[in-house]
């Protein structure tokens, strides 16, 4: 357990926003663990974890606590999509997305807060999405799961504030990741036309907001929904 900095856990930290968040905390001197379902992530304590499994979550936290110490900052980022219009969407696709994105977040947050409450300090940041409030055709399952994170996070902010544990939500818009890179050029142009800043975010820009919410400077910020969306979600 030797070392400086806080113990940070980023779920889904093997790529995209999660990896950028992990690197941002590491650059600040924190000791960072990431969960991944696809092998080791160079430079980080990597734990195999499927957030739909309570047993996986318990095993992941047990290993992190043994190797690094109790988790002091949790970034719940793990998530999936299974896009389809409602009339074509099977119930399994809806429940799988909600179980991963929303119930999976419940599982990791519940496990982390048990130690935070005892320590009377902690930072929790949930990664939602601009579509949580704007909606998105073909993403009713994803939007529902990400909207659920807002109600979940704000309820926890009220529950845990007296223990000096803050809970905030970051709501990214379209971000330059492997997922958006495969979109057809026409769809990317359509997206950018709706963004006041006229470009996608970088994963590092999202990570900067996450790291600030977990900092001492943001100690009086809780229950906030912070958009990093270039203005796409204004008015929602």
UniProtKB/TrEMBL annotation:
InterPro entries, per the entry: KR_dom, NAD(P)-bd_dom_sf, Sc_DH/Rdtase_CS, SDR_fam
Domain of life, source organism: Bacteria
SMART domains on file: PKS_KR
SUPFAM superfamilies associated with the record: NAD(P)-binding Rossmann-fold domains
A UniProt-annotated Pfam family: adh_short_C2
UniProt xrefs under PROSITE patterns: ADH_SHORT (PS00061)
Domain annotation Ketoreductase: ranges: 6-178
Residues in coiled coil: none
Similarity annotation: Belongs to the short-chain dehydrogenases/reductases (SDR) family.
Record-linked NCBIfam families: PRK12826.1-2
Protein name: SDR family oxidoreductase
Organism encoding this protein: Acidiferrimicrobium australe
């Amino acid at each position: 357990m030797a070392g400086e900095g806080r113990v940070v856990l980023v779920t889904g930290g093997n790529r995209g926003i999660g990896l950028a968040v992990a690197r941002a905390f590491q650059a600040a001197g924190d000791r960072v663990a990431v969960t991944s379902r696809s092998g080791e992530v160079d430079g980080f304590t990597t734990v195999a974890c499927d957030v739909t499994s309570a047993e996986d979550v318990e095993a992941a936290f047990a290993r992190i606590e043994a190797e690094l110490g109790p988790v002091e900052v949790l970034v719940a980022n793990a998530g999936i999509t299974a896009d389809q219009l409602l009339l074509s969407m099977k119930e399994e696709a809806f429940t799988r997305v909600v179980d991963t994105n929303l119930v999976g977040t419940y599982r990791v947050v519940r496990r982390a807060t048990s130690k935070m409450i005892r320590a009377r300090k902690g930072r929790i940041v949930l990664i939602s999405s601009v579509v949580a409030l704007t909606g998105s055709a073909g993403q009713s399952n994803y939007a529902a799961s990400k909207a659920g994170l807002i109600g979940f996070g704000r309820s926890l902010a009220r529950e845990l504030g007296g223990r000096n544990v803050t809970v905030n939500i970051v709501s990214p818009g379209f971000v330059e990741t492997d997922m958006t890179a495969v979109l057809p050029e026409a769809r990317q142009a359509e997206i950018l036309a709706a963004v006041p800043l006229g470009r996608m975010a970088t994963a590092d820009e999202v990570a900067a907001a996450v790291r600030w919410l977990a900092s001492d400077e943001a100690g009086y910020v809780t229950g906030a929904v912070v958009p990093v969306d270039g203005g796409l979600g204004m008015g929602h």
